[in-house]
Write a sequence for this structure.
């Protein structure tokens, strides 16, 4: 006589063995490589569609909806950016010597902002240090704030010196008259993420104010991995762009600004 528990366990055991056998066949049997390749393509497609989330199977993605979940230096760094510029110390800082020039306008939609690759567009000298302009990009609203007030947008011009040190100029953009370079960027910006488009020549100086007085402090990148050791130069004078240009940028990215971070006893210097 077969015990009652055996009558129940035998069919269950058989089902489990069949499932294990099927799984081994799926993973190792004929066509396994093709099945895995199909699974990979489907996973990549799903990752691309879930723009507001993260796809951990193929690496961590980030977004501006959950900045409190950014990891690494973003979470534990003590010299993070952006900051609210409140109290400053006036100092005889080196003047900014910019020698930007015309270069092909190559607009890139990188999935987080509109970026202009600036190879060959010149650079700047700060004291005896030469910085080459790498790229410039946009944020809405401004990431830095001045005495608690944000601007409509902020332009970041990213530079690197010969030792690999980064320096970024931040320019506040406010509602006013239309700007010709902003017009060219928006008109040639690709809707598809990752695509680039080269158009006519453009000069980054067209998005900078005449007054080059500035604030400066040591900080970080404002996007993951938020690496520190970066020199921030935030110009005091804003530049005007039109209300329609602000609205047009927001059709690409309505909110791509990291919240301000703790200053943590850093000193913000202000040029005379």
């Amino acid at each position: 006589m077969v015990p009652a528990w055996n009558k129940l366990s035998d069919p269950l055991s058989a089902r489990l063995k069949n499932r294990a056998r099927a799984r081994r066949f799926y993973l190792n049997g004929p066509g396994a490589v093709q099945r895995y390749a199909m699974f990979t393509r489907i996973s990549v497609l799903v990752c691309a569609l879930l723009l507001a989330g993260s796809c951990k199977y193929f690496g961590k993605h980030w977004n501006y909806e959950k900045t409190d979940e950014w990891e690494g230096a973003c979470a534990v760094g003590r010299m993070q950016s952006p900051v609210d510029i409140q109290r400053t110390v006036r100092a005889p800082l080196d003047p900014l010597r910019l020698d930007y020039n015309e270069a092909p306008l190559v607009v890139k939609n990188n999935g987080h902002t509109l970026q202009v690759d600036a190879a060959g567009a010149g650079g700047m000298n700060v004291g005896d240090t030469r910085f080459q302009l790498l790229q410039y990009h946009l944020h809405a609203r401004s990431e830095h704030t001045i005495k608690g007030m944000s601007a409509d947008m902020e332009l970041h011009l990213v530079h690197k010196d010969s030792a690999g040190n980064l320096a970024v100029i931040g320019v506040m953009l406010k509602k006013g008259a239309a700007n010709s370079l902003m017009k060219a960027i928006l008109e040639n910006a690709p809707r598809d993420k990752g695509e680039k488009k080269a158009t006519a020549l453009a000069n980054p100086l067209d998005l900078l104010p005449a007054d080059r007085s500035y604030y400066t402090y040591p900080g970080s990148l404002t996007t993951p991995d938020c690496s520190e050791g970066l020199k921030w130069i935030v110009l005091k004078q804003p530049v005007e762009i039109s209300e329609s240009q602000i609205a047009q940028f927001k059709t690409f990215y309505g909110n791509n600004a990291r919240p301000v971070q703790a200053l943590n006893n850093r000193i913000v210097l202000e040029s005379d």
User: Anything to note?
Assistant: Residues 67-271 form a domain with the Carbonic Anhydrase II fold (CATH 3.10.200.10).
